[in-house]
Design a protein that fits this description.
single chain, about 350 residues, alpha/beta, nine-stranded mixed beta sheet, two-stranded antiparallel sheet, 11 helices
């Protein structure tokens, strides 16, 4: 079934939210931890709030990994394989990009998030596992954070540049904001910059300002080692001549490609995820005006069933207005204790089942 393109009856999303990992549900292992959980909660909250947003990530057919412990407590890992064909809807469009001199085709799968008021936010999961692609290229969307630096750079090119091109292929051509959740998708800003340079070839300042007007960047990593950086020789072998030319015009501080530096340079708003983290980020990357937006959670997803039932009874609007939870003090203490006991028993039963 094809994804319905934007029409006057189906408003075009204004915000495209890019993240290398997104926690949609436990049976879809396209996340490894906090970054993906935050991305999923952000998109669920957007659906609850009725925000015009669309998510973009990779399909990660082999997921992150499944941890296995032996009798001595030693860990081993195996792929967390799953099949999007059985869980998601293919959108019925493809697009192309060039990776290392080869044309690579992309398709996308759609996951739909429905908010408490019925508003929906779509998430596109990009996939290179197509028969027309070179066998090596078909594996690029297999493993989250897998492979070597070449594999990672190709994945980030697919997420950023491929994501923008897929949105255009689906009819989303006038997106107002591109939100990069970490630097993995920063090459989307380079693609937007190249488009702007095509309009006025000699005006780098105008192109930079136009891209900054449209790009937002959130960084989560408070240590320098956590920011992706790719050696220039590798970058030269993967990117196209046009992309390399655009990179040269931007004049980043390092010859190697630091994805955080690229995102910072081409974003009009940047933020850390706590006040302390924003302060640390200003030290790591001097000269950039980091704001701070503290991480939150999607209450409807993470509240235990017994407490959900209590909130529904005593604070009925809590799902659409989380601030309503400030009235939870009216719930009788005995009911809260009983809900706690119920959930603790569920937890112990699960531990017993697993061990």
């Amino acid at each position: 079934m094809n994804l319905v393109p934007p029409t006057s009856a189906s408003p075009e999303p204004l915000i495209a939210y890019f993240s290398m990992e997104v926690a949609l549900e436990s049976g879809i292992p396209t996340y490894s931890g906090g970054l993906g959980v935050l991305a999923g909660d952000t998109l669920r909250s957007a659906a609850d709030l009725g925000l015009p947003m669309i998510g973009v990530t990779l399909v990660h057919r082999k997921g992150y990994f499944v941890q296995v412990l032996d009798a001595q407590g030693w860990q081993s890992e195996k792929p967390a394989e799953w099949s999007p064909e059985g869980r998601l809807e293919e959108v019925g469009r493809t697009c192309q990009l060039t990776i290392g001199g080869r044309t690579v085709s992309l398709r996308a799968w759609r996951y739909r998030i429905r908010g408490v008021t019925g508003h929906t936010v779509d998430v596109l999961l990009l996939d290179t596992d197509l028969p027309q692609n070179h066998p090596d290229d078909r594996r690029f969307t297999d493993s989250l954070y897998g492979g070597d630096a070449h594999y990672r750079l190709c994945q980030e090119l697919i997420l950023g540049v491929g994501g923008v091109r897929m949105l255009r292929a689906l009819g989303y051509r006038r997106l107002g904001r591109y939100h990069m959740n970490e630097g993995h998708s920063a090459l989307l800003s380079l693609d937007l910059f190249a488009d702007e340079m095509d309009k006025v070839p000699d005006d780098v300042e105008r192109a930079t300002d136009e891209v900054r007007r449209r790009c937002v960047f959130t960084t989560h990593t408070p240590v320098s080692a956590g920011h992706d950086e790719f050696a220039f020789d590798l970058v030269k072998s993967v990117l196209t001549p046009t992309q390399l030319e655009s990179l040269a015009k931007i004049q980043l501080p390092s010859r190697d490609l630091n994805m955080t530096q690229l995102a910072l340079h081409l974003s009009g708003f940047v933020n850390g995820v706590t006040k302390r983290h924003a302060a640390l980020s200003r030290q790591l990357f001097p000269g950039f005006p980091f704001e701070s937006i503290t991480n939150g959670v999607h209450s409807g997803t993470w509240t235990a069933p017994s407490l959900q039932k209590l909130f529904d009874e005593h604070v009925p609007d809590w799902r659409s207005d989380n601030l309503g939870l400030r009235h939870a003090f009216i719930i009788p203490t005995g009911q809260i204790w009983e809900a706690h006991r119920t959930e603790k028993k569920r937890l112990l039963d699960e531990v017993k089942r697993l061990t």
